[in-house]
Design a protein that fits this description.
quinone reductase (NADPH) activity; 16 strands; ADH-like_C; 325 residues; single chain; Rossmann fold; seven-stranded mixed beta sheet; alpha/beta; globular; oxidoreductase; 2 domains; Quinone Oxidoreductase, Chain A, domain 1; QOR-like; 10 helices
Length: 325
């Protein structure tokens, strides 16, 4: 049976995505071939498709998948044919029915986590892990601001923050999304289209501001996020949903309270095999215990990936979206 995958031969809108037959070579040394059962959709996929994050063309797409090991390359250890595995830090090509993946990028999926749940939660959950546990290790009793609270990462972060005893203030674009965010751990939610986010945060913190803001929106929220911070607070910019932040005058950071800004990426926090597997084990344990709900809000056939991208970019999605081969 032939394998299929999504490819794009030029950058642009969702229409450039093509569902094509693909030919995979045998898995190389240290690799495993997996038969993919579920694929996670992430905003970074749209950045690659549009050219914001350049890739060599033609290109495969997708960096998060769950599947079953069907073949091992020479010298591959720690895995067996039939193992359920997932990856979110491997090579592009997850939008497919099969893929060869370096064994060091694969993590075990426990029996108590379904394929869809693992695909929905892994990259977003690992992102939440490094944001909350490494970039700014939150502490019980603190108050933080998290933009796009009803998105895939936002919902997992809200659940995790509640579990850690942190008061989370989320921002969303609609009353419907506010309800979802409140159900998933956020103590307060601000409708950014209706309210002045920074003013409301100051009100909720008795004028003090917060020690950290997590912002995946980008250009549209950057300065407002700075205004939410207390002196020497940290702005964590980890996405560009509204476009990249450019032309920043560093003097603004001094004027607003000697602030810090960081732009973390998954690659720099999860490039160690042991740390990756420890992070995934912690995440999947929370899923199994019901602390974290993957929140699969939408399902699309793999061949319908273009429409999945349209829904994601128009902010018409809630929670996680999975593609099913």
């Amino acid at each position: 049976m032939p394998d299929y995958g999504i490819r794009f031969h030029e950058t642009g809108g969702p229409e450039v995505l093509r569902y094509e037959e693909i030919e995979l070579p045998p898995p190389g040394r240290g690799e495993a071939r997996i038969r993919i059962t579920a694929v996670g959709l992430n905003f970074v996929d749209t950045y690659r498709r549009t050219g914001l994050y350049p890739v060599d063309l033609p290109s495969a797409l997708g960096a998060e998948a769950v599947g079953v090991v069907t073949e091992l390359g020479e010298g591959t250890t720690g895995l067996a044919v039939g193992d359920r595995v997932a990856h979110a830090t491997g090579p592009l090509g997850a939008y497919a029915t099969a893929q060869n993946v370096p064994a060091d990028c694969l993590v075990s999926v426990p029996d108590g986590v379904t394929d869809e749940s693992a695909a929905a939660v892994l990259l977003k959950g690992l992102t939440a892990w490094y944001l909350l546990r490494r970039t700014y290790p939150v502490r019980s009793g603190e108050t933080v601001v998290f933009h796009a609270a009803a998105g895939g990462v936002g919902l997992i972060a809200g659940q995790w923050l509640r579990h850690l005893g942190v008061r989370a203030i989320g921002t969303v674009g609609s009353a419907e999304k506010a309800k979802v965010a409140l159900e998933n751990g956020y103590r307060e939610v601000i409708l950014y289209r209706e309210d002045d986010v920074a003013a409301r945060v100051r009100e909720l913190t008795d004028g003090e501001g917060v020690p950290v803001v997590y912002d995946s929106v980008g250009a549209a929220t950057f300065e407002n996020s700075l205004d939410c911070l207390r002196p020497r607070g940290l702005m964590v910019s980890f996405g560009n949903a509204s476009g990249p932040v450019t032309g920043v005058n560093l003097g603004i950071l001094a004027a607003k309270g000697s602030l810090f800004v960081t732009r973390p990426t998954t690659a720099h926090y999860l490039n160690d095999r042991d740390e990756l597997r420890a992070a995934a084990a912690e995440l999947f344990d929370l899923v199994e215990r019901g602390v974290t709900n993957p929140n699969v809000g939408q399902r699309f056939a793999l061949a319908d990936a273009a429409n999945a991208h349209r829904a994601l970019e128009s902010r018409a999605t809630t929670g996680a979206t999975v593609l099913l081969p």
